[in-house]
Amino acid sequence: MPEADFEHLQDVVRHRYDVEALVGRGGMGAVYRARHVSLDAPVAIKVLPVPASIGEDELARFRREAMLAARLPNPHIVPVYEFEIRGDLAYLVMPLIEGVSLAQRLSAEGPLPLAEVRRLVEQIGGALAFAHARGIIHRDVKPANILWEPANSRWLITDFGIARYVRAEDDAITSVGAVLGTPAYMAPEQAAGLELDGRTDMYALAATACEALTGRRLKPLAGRDTAVQAMLAAPMPVPPKVAALLALPLVASPDERPPTMDAWLAQVTGPRDRPWWRRTAVMLVAAAATIVAGITWLVSSTATPPADAGTVIAVVPFTDGTALGLSHSLAQAFEDELRWVPDVQIVPAATVEEVVGTLDLSSPTGLDSATMLVLARFGAGARVLSGAIVAEAAGSLRLSVQLRQAGGRTTTVPDQRGVPDSLASSVARAVLRLFGPAAGEASYRPSLPGGGLEAMGALRAGDSLFRAAAYDAAIARYDRVLALDSTYALAAFKRMFAEVLRTQPTRASRAVRSALEPVRRYRDNLDPMNRALLEAYEVLVAEGDVEGAHQRVRDLTDRYPLAVDAWFVRGYLEFYFGPLFGTPSTLARWSLGKAEELDPGFAAVRGLLGWIALLEGDDEIARTHLRAYLAIDSTSTWAALARLGDSLRLRGGRVALGTLRRVEDRPAGALELFALAGASLQLEPAERLLVGDAARALRDRATTAAERAVAFRLQLGNALGSGRGATVDTLFREAPRRNVPLEELDRATVLLAATRLWGRPMTEGDVTEAARRLMASPNDPTSQWLAARWLQERDRARAQQARQALRRITGTRTGEALLARSLLGDLEAQDHVRAGDTLAAFTRWAAATTRFQFEEVPFGLVASLWPLRLAWARTAAARGDHDEVVLATATFEVSPGFMDQVARAIALPLRADALDATGDRLAARELRRRYAAVLRDATGAWVAVRDTLLARSGAS
Fold first, then answer.
1. pTM for this structure?
2. How far is CA 866 from CA 539, 745, 825, in A?
3. Which residues are CB-contacts of 912 (< 8 A; sequence separation ≥ 6)?
4. CA 357, CA 280: separation in Å to the nearest integer?
5. Secondary structure of 28-39 in the HEC alphabet?
6. Residue partners of 622: CB distance under 8 A and separation at least 6
7. Mean pLDDT confidence for 540-559
8. Quick one: average pLDDT of 525-544?
9. How many Å apart are CA 747 and CA 744, to the nearest integer?
10. What is the enclosing helix (H) or strand (E) of 576?
11. To 10 degrees, the CA torsion angle through 501, 502, 508, 510?
12. What are the residue numbers of the active site?
């Protein structure tokens, strides 16, 4: 592809990206700047032209780059969002890193300071160690593949294009004897084409570090002594001991190098589980007295400096001299207050604790050392807020607060005194004294609850319980806060999210929406960050605009990059609803990874990261996150689900077999959630067995009409999704005997008949009677839509009545109004098809599938709007519009809704054919292979579907 010829690339990616400019070229292809069309987000697209002469190994290597990078969710590894091969063009999409490579930086600035190089070695070495633990070596570590991102002050490694997945027994792409890499950074064993391991990357990183310190590239295979001499003679000489440690890997024999990357980093920068800036804490404590004597470190001032734009405030846990246990509550109180100050980023006390470790913050030397560590971690421009609370005579409390900066400058606030129940106002006064003008411009309101220490304690306890996934207990604490102060919006806001997370998809109810009402009433009392988060949630709930809500949360994380709650909500939306607006799961993993980095103890974040890793087949990462989750939460429904995943996928053998045998003993909530996972194309055969057993166990336990309806839908969805036609017949035949509610049976009957998915052994008249019975539920949009759909050609008068009921629902202020609007749009699109105007129908379906009744999407019968997309795809296929088919069927691969799987026998073959027709034959073959595996035990009409898929995928 010519460097200036963007047209071909733009034509291939036009549905998702606008290509803007060529960024540069590397050994494996060109890199272009582009922008995601719907998200308006910058990305980088790496392109490899695919002429007829290109070798299969080069194409396989390019695909390997995408696979490896996607498996490595590490903050210092550039992730891959997606990979495609279209005709003569292969490309992968990555985030656009706003920065420069190490090679460019050295060219512009010359040698880097030792501190910066140590940071580079720590971050890139840590990322490579992360990859090595997963059996992956990079094979081409060099300055051109290391990026510097100034905005986040971090180094990143990219281009795993010639990496080798050393555990893959069938890997012949980079076999022994194949010499790939860059000579100046190539270890002797790599140059000789011998077997490689992580010590090869260690050699290359050491050569890179030497070049970063000296500004000069070492000659190939220069050796350790040459590197040491070069560093000692550098413009900024390196201490001999440090030079010797950095050059340790630069020896000919791998066996003479440190055994692992971690072992080398432990010598150069300190053990990886304790970064060098924390490892030096003891030394800093010892030296602090000397530092204080030599520098005017504690300079009292009554001035009130305004917060600079983008100021980072790190809140250190307060020293508590009372018997009330106020240390963390006070820190949380200041965090909540500081959110009113504009242009301030808050580092929570929980994160700061990770940095300062076990330092004694009650002593001056310990606090000084903590300040230095925080400044080293979060930048010299950060400020450190610390303080102490002590008890005085007559039951009074005295609050002292300080704000520290680099260079020894400290701003102190006059001590605040008062009775314990006035502590909230003392915190507010301290913040106003420190940030008065800035806080005033933000229409500052005290953000702590009335109700004294009891309310503050309940709020703190609620937050801790929320992060530990104890949602019922958290809600009880937030309710206590609201009982003491009914207008306290923040407690209502946090309660709302606890309500959302504790509500299982099979039990989605108006509780999710009703929890929003008290927050709306007092929204003006929310700080700006949480108010913006509330507005995003309102877009989701009130407007059903999942993509719009996601965009708002993305904007919020741009403004508040240290706000863990914003990162969590962003990842939550991407994980559960990303398929509805074209966002890959890797984005959810990245967003949740940011939340986990800020708060490692956030259970929901750990759980979601674990499930993403399971779905992507990365068992090592899944094990790490699921077991971290269980260390936080071992009793809830979600904990039972985590144990199921851990036992079945990660322990294997007898443990997995025991899990299958004991499935009926699991809590009902965990069984529901595991049965819902049956919609995934990624499950192993044993896991599919467990899904079926879980649904049957729920059926056998059901005692209420609602439980019987849930169990029936779970069994029906899983049977249809895996092509077990005989099971479907049995389910319908036994349903009356098992007291499945008639309305659930009628909905299922009419749905499958109206969408032409399953020919139940019923007459058309039986289906018509079921449709007429559904009209007796005037406030249920699904029932009215099904009746209108089926009766349109059979009883037009009743069909019109159903449409009128649907229109009436659209005028209500309920969640059902959103679903009714989308379903009414489907009926209008069907009208266009009957009139012969398929283009108008496509437009109507596209518009109708942009709004959702979001809480019903995961388990609702049609709330994910899959019947609309199915009709859209069928019509487009009949018209021969392959691009439209690809667009309409995108969600059937990833199943945002549980019931999407019932249409796969139609949707996925249509999608595979359309991918073939548009030149994406590799993706089409892979899709057929995966879905054929799901249909392994198919019966009835699905057997022919499976056999056709297998034949066309090239599998036997």
1. 0.66
2. 22, 19, 13
3. 924, 925, 927, 928, 949, 952
4. 11
5. CEEEEEEEECCC
6. 610, 611, 613, 614, 645, 649, 650
7. 89
8. 89
9. 5
10. helix 564-577
11. -90
12. 140
165 DSSP 8-state letter: E
446 token code pair: 């005290």
Q: Look up residue 498 and give its two tokens.
A: 């606890």
Exposed/middle/buried for 5, CB within 10 Å: 0-12, 13-18, 19+?
exposed
> Phi, psi at residue 668, to the nearest 5°?
-60, -40
Nearest to 509 by CA among 21, 859, 778: 859
Of 502, 453, 514, nearest in space to 476 by CA:
502
Please report, as a single letter, which amino acid is at residue 335. Answer: E
Looking at residues 52-72, what average pLDDT do you find?
A: 60
Question: Cα–Cα distance between 55 and 33 in angstroms, integer?
Answer: 27
Sheet holding 42-49, edge to edge: 17-26, 29-36, 42-49, 89-95, 82-86
Q: What is the pLDDT of residues 453-489, one digit of tens each?
A: 888 889 888 988 998 989 999 999 999 999 998 888 8
CA distance to 361, 404, 410, 714, per residue, from 299 (Å) = 18, 10, 5, 67
Query: Who's near 629: CB < 8 A, 6+ residues apart?
Result: 469, 603, 606, 607, 610, 638, 639, 642
Residues 6+ apart with CB under 8 A from 649: 614, 619, 622, 656, 684, 687
The lowest-confidence range among 285-299, 349-363, 577-591 is 285-299
CB–CB of 856/512 below 8 Å? no
Cα–Cα distance for residue pair 603/439, rounded to 1 Å: 33
3-state secondary structure 325-359: CCHHHHHHHHHHHHCCCCCEEEECHHHHHHHHCCC
Contact 924, 915 (CB under 8 A): yes
For 244-257, write each residue's pLDDT tens digit: 899 999 988 888 89
Q: Are 399 and 389 in contact (CB under 8 A)?
A: yes
Tokens of 660: 């299958």
642, amino acid identity: A
Instruction: Please write the tens of the pLDDT for every residue from 165-179.
Output: 343 333 333 333 344
- In the numeric block, which tokens belong to residue 447? 């953000």
- Tokens at 216, concatenated: 């000069």
- Please name every residue paired with 83 in a beta bridge, in sequence order, or none if there are none: 92
